[in-house]
Here is the input.
Amino acid sequence: MPQSDHLLGAPRSAAVSRRALLGVVLLAAAPGVAQARRRSFWPGGARFAVSLTYDDGLDSQLQYAVPELDRRGYKATFFLTEENMAARLPDWEVVAQHGHEIANHTVHHPCDLRKFDARSLETRELAPMARFIRQYFGRQPRTFAYPCGFIGLGQGDNHTRFARYEHLLRHDFLAARTTAGPPNTIAAVRADPLRLAGFEPTYDADVVAPGRRYLELAEREGAWAILVFHDVVPKWRGEGDASLKTHSAVLDLVEKSGAWCAPMGAVMKRIRGRR
Ligand SMILES: [Zn+2]
Here is the structure.
């Protein structure tokens, strides 16, 4: 669930270290020769790319986020969890008809996967969700978001657990997203498309500044910014939420930046298609 969406667990400290990581990267980022070369990579001469992603299939996304995206003409990626959204299936079908990407976030959103192995995760969570999406949305989901941002599967040391999860995802997905880290450079995406970093701009507080810094860094690096939202609500209640006002302000930043804004599957296709 949103309140525990962290990379590798350890809720508060992970949030702190994520901010620290971003700070280090921000300090280290400097304009270079490569920057000019990268600028032409994205469509329409855009200097960087942004994917707007929404996790868990929450009612507030239907009520508030989708109308705002549609007003602005933005196509986003919705990582659906069947148990959260099945009751609103007809509404989600309309979302897909509007051109938004429908993607896989498992059936039940398990976070701690130590009790799973590759086979049980596939048969209980990944394959049934893919079938559900094919059945009701008419296409195979090709992007995945790790529930809670946890990237380890089964038993063993972290290296073994990460490798096991990636090996499983490689069969069905072009790209997979965590919830923490700096913007994704094209080189990093090509090296490891199943470990893309997302960024939750309003995770710690309902303010615009973290999102602004993140987008500025993406622009400097010609990178792919992947913003992560959960509930989008009139008033921020805690971790995981974005208020309507702040959500809208972050979308304003995206709009003003002139970034190429597209669903994750479309950006991934672009990166794979160009060498
Ligand atoms: Zn989630």
